[in-house]
């Protein structure tokens, strides 16, 4: 077990912090030894660089909500888990070598026989799944996902599993290749000359998801009549302010929605989709590195974030 965690000590500066040894468990608590965590690319970059006011510019601070761990011990009243169980844990506590959590916390037991490393990305996948469930995507819906970062990637997969036709757009070939491998019907290079016309040809879209915070997107949707009447625009990516043309709401009676969380039932559905093969994770994983390499990853997150896609930290190496 490692007794350290990651901490943002100043804007753009990362350090390992000492967590000490775990305290005595309360009756309903679990001691979880971290085996893997995953980077939450957008959230952690915003906090690391104080973008969009995220994190309030307060340092030191810890960020991240994707953990895979093995139960070391349990309190005397714990009934759902036992030592040796593997769990996904989704609370926003940052990257830690161990966590003490209540058995009713945001977690799910993982079955034997799956690759636990990939399950570390259940957090961003859970945000994506919740967006699709809340907004009601279903069979034969026409969906455009703008941006194929981790959440946009999984959003496209989950919407496709619901029976929707999926168009995705991004400027990074690696992301578009992963989208096509995972079933997107149309994958467009956003800065290509043909992309705007192809997007228009596919209209109207029953759902449009903004997963990259393009400033002009809402105006483009309105001006080019891309949205179905009364359809929702899901603003998933973090923004400072949202400015929209009134005629987008008045003319089409559009809805603007957002979604940025997940719950235990979302994790239940997510695990089912993953076990049944409706959700793929391996194609979008770009890095699996030991946690000791975290400083290099966060430097890349600062200087060249587009090189990162699905990033998993392995806490089991060199213990």
Question: Quick one: overall form?
Answer: globular
Low-confidence stretches: none
CATH topology (level 3) name of the largest domain: Quinone Oxidoreductase, Chain A, domain 1
Any idea how many domains?
Answer: 2
Output the radius of gyration: 20 Å
Task: Indicate the percent of residues in helices.
Answer: 25-40%
Task: Report the CATH architecture of the largest domain.
Answer: Alpha-Beta Complex
Strand content: 25-35%
The CATH first-level class of the largest domain comes to Alpha Beta
Distance between the termini: 7 Å
> Mean of the pLDDT scores?
95
E-strand count: 15
Q: Give a quick account of the main beta sheet: strands, pairing sense, barrel closure.
A: 7 strands, mixed
Category from helices, strands and their pairing: alpha/beta
The number of distinct helices, counting runs of at least 4 residues, comes to 10
Along the chain, the helix and strand elements come as EEEHEEEEHHEHEHEHEHEHEHEHE
CATH superfamily of the largest domain: Medium-chain alcohol dehydrogenases, catalytic domain
Q: Overview of this structure, please?
A:
The chain is of the alpha/beta class and 319 residues long. Helix content is 29%, strand content 25%. It has two domains: 4-121 and 281-314, Alpha-Beta Complex (Quinone Oxidoreductase, Chain A, domain 1), CATH 3.90.180; 125-257, NAD(P)-binding Rossmann-like Domain (Rossmann fold, 3-Layer(aba) Sandwich), CATH 3.40.50.720. The longest helix has 14 residues, at 122-135. It starts with a strand and ends in a 5-residue tail after the last strand.
């Amino acid at each position: 077990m490692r007794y350290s965690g990651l901490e943002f000590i100043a804007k753009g500066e990362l350090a390992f912090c000492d967590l000490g040894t775990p305290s005595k468990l309360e009756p309903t608590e679990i001691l979880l030894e971290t085996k893997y965590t995953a980077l939450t690319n957008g959230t952690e970059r915003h906090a690391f660089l104080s973008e969009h006011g995220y994190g309030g510019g307060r340092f030191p601070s810890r960020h991240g909500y994707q953990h895979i761990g093995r139960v070391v011990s349990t309190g005397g009243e714990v009934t759902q888990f036992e030592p040796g169980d593997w769990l996904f844990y989704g609370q926003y506590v940052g990257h830690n070598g161990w966590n003490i959590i209540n058995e009713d916390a945001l977690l799910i037991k993982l079955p034997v026989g799956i690759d636990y490393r990939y399950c570390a990305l259940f957090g961003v996948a859970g945000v994506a799944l919740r967006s699709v469930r809340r907004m009601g995507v279903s069979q034969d819906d026409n969906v455009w996902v703008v941006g194929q970062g981790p959440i946009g990637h999984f959003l496209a997969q989950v919407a496709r599993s619901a029976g929707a036709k999926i168009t995705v757009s991004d400027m990074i070939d690696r992301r578009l290749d992963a989208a096509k491998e995972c079933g997107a019907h149309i994958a467009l290079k956003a800065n290509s000359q043909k992309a705007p016309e192809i997007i228009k040809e596919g209209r109207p879209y029953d759902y449009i998801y903004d997963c990259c915070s393009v400033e002009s997107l809402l105006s483009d949707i309105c001006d080019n009549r891309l949205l179905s009447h009364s359809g929702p625009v899901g603003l998933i990516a973090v923004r400072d302010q949202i400015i929209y043309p009134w005629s987008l709401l008045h003319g089409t009676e559009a809805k603007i929605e957002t979604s940025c969380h997940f719950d235990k039932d979302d994790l239940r559905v997510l695990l089912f989709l993953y076990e049944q093969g409706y959700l793929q994770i391996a194609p979008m994983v770009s890095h699996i590195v030991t946690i000791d390499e975290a400083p290099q990853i966060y430097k890349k997150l600062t200087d060249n974030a587009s090189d990162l896609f699905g990033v998993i930290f392995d806490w089991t190496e060199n213990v």
